[in-house]
Specification:
- The structure is a single chain.
- By secondary structure, this protein is of the alpha/beta class.
- The protein is about 40% helix and about 15% strand.
- The protein has 9 helices and 8 strands.
- The structure holds nickel (II) ion.
Length: about 250
Amino acid sequence: MLVDTHCHLDFPQFDADRDEIIKEAHSRGVNRLINVGADLKSSIASCALAAKYEHIYAAVGVHPHDADSFTNETFEEIARLAKNAKVAAIGEIGLDYFRNLSAQENQERVFKQLIGLAKSLNKPIIVHSRNADNFTLEILKSLMPLKAVIHCFSGDDIFLQQCLDLGFYISFTCNITYLKAESLRLTAKAVPLDRLMLETDSPYLPPEGKRGRRNDPANVKTVALKLAELKDIELSELEKITTENAFNFFKLK
Ligand code: NI
């Protein structure tokens, strides 16, 4: 049994075959999915998917890309959605200083506001951090204690150690299979098993050999295989531990 802790099945890339993709993943042992909101619209859609499928949970939040258009009304709507019992986390939230699609000051303001919401509801957060690790860390540190997972981890060993020291979880996507990802694989190898989680970030980041195509949650198995190889343990062991981590972290049933 596997958990894909981060996918976007509400995105239009799945409009033609969403139900089949969900069934296919389930038949391959991907028995829990967290569908993650990136803005208000996809947060609403995530909750709808969670209502339709017993094994799907939702995260609600606003991605740093959309921080410029975040208003008080957006916050109120996200806060209302977040009270739903199938909302397992607030996310994805964070900072993206790589694409800088929203002003950095707005990204920071929205990130802090949504962390505050997560804390008030006692829910974990799913953090997106790109080219902003020091800034991300500074905000997270200032708002401790926090239950956080760093999604699609792409940082260096120093950032990893700082996150581990704060008790955070680390989640990897199929990008650890990419030919040029040798240093990321070394970083992944250093993550203790009791802090590891798996995700696909579907429809993005398909595994090596399928690049340029749409990713889907069944490929979380590819992440598991690669991490088992890196950690030099049996696949079944890796699956068992990461599934337990996800169940505990997100309070899944
Ligand atoms: Ni994502």
